[in-house]
Amino acid sequence: MLMSFNPIAAWLEMKTQLPELAIEGIGIKYIYPVFLVLIVLEYVNAKHLFDLKESWSGFVIGIGATIIRVITNVFEITLYMFLFAWAEPFREQYLGYSTLGFAWYIWLICAIADDHNFYWHHRLAHNVRVLWAAHLPHHSGKMYNLTISIRNGWFITLVKPIYWLWMPLLGFEPIMIATCLIVNAFYQFTLHSQLMPSYGWIENIFNSSYVHVVHHSSNTEYLDRNHGGIFTFWDRLYNTWQKPIKGIVPKFGISHDPGTNNPITHNLFEFQEIWRDVKQAPTFKAKLMYIFGPPGWRHDGTGKTSQQLQEELRASGKFGAPTAVEVEPQAVRA
Ligand SMILES: [Zn+2]
């Protein structure tokens, strides 16, 4: 079956089933112009939240990511279609159905499952160094504004689909999976603006810019927290939740900054650092740790992971102690 599978034919067939779902069509015609208008509106209303050189770099990173994504999406959706078709006889034999169909509750389960996949994809992108290298450009912006939403690493889409593969195997329709992925990505656009209000109690369920600020801050208390996309309850469930702390002023950006706005550097920087460390590593195990271990790990103990930094801060009793300027994260907003 593998030999006879034609990915281009499968992709074209998907397009004929639901042509309006073509990502480039929806994105370029409707969504991206809205994003652009919102970014311009945010800039006009809050110029102090922008550094134009960095914003321009963010645009170039975003355009590169979009081009790569349009190409990889073809293979991603095609792979889902292939797995869906391949596993159909097994589903019929062992589970008693060929497809989970399009009932409203299946859509809901799909959206929740999609965000669960996203949580683990995102969490590992922070805790496995080679994945962090691919995710880093999304975090290396020092100004928190809507350009961060489009500032995605060029290589992250190469590994992201792995977390979704179980869904077509179980019988989720590939078109439904694609829709959930798109909705999730668009929801996340709203998470990167200091002009967005806190949603109050709704943040117990839904992610907001107010709580996502924590995820983009390099303050020790905030490192590797709040990985959820649409929902916040995954972080509570898996112990990665951190509310904004009164008195902690968010330090946006990353602690190990490339020191330039060059978009190519931001995409390659950490991979080069990994390569340098792997070459110098004394043992095979250390080489593997530099690739697959957490960022900050060093074979000679001279580096610290975010978990170690947080444990040290807790032990010192200074966890959550106010930073120099005593204002709430909300208060630093325009
Ligand atoms: Zn992240």
Keywords for this structure?
334 residues; mainly alpha; 13 helices; 0% strand; disordered C terminus; binds zinc ion
Describe the structure.
With 334 residues, the protein is an all-alpha fold. The chain has 13 helices and no strands. Helix 1 crosses helix 3 (52-95), helix 3 (52-95) packs antiparallel against helix 8 (174-189) and helix 5 packs antiparallel against helix 11. Residues 326-334 have low confidence and may be disordered. Zinc ion (ZN) binds at residues 122, 126, 135, 138-139, 215.
- According to DSSP, the number of beta strands is 0
The distinct bound ligands, ions and cofactors come out as:
zinc ion
Please identify the structural class as seen in this structure: mainly alpha
**Fraction of helical residues:** 55-70%
Based on Cα principal axes, name the global outline. Answer: globular
The portion of residues forming beta strands comes to under 5%
Unreliable segments of 5+ consecutive residues: 326-334
Mean pLDDT: 89
Number of helices: 13
Q: What's the gyration radius in Å? A: 21 Å
Write the H/E string, N to C: HHHHHHHHHHHHH
**How many domains, in number, for the residues?**
1
Largest sheet, strands/sense/barrel: none
Please sum up the structure shown:
The protein is mainly alpha-helical and 334 residues long.
Topology of this protein?
Blueprint: H1 7-17, H2 23-45, H3 52-95, H4 104-127, H5 129-139, H6 147-150, H7 166-170, H8 174-189, H9 209-215, H10 233-237, H11 263-280, H12 284-292, H13 306-315
Bound molecules: zinc ion (ZN).
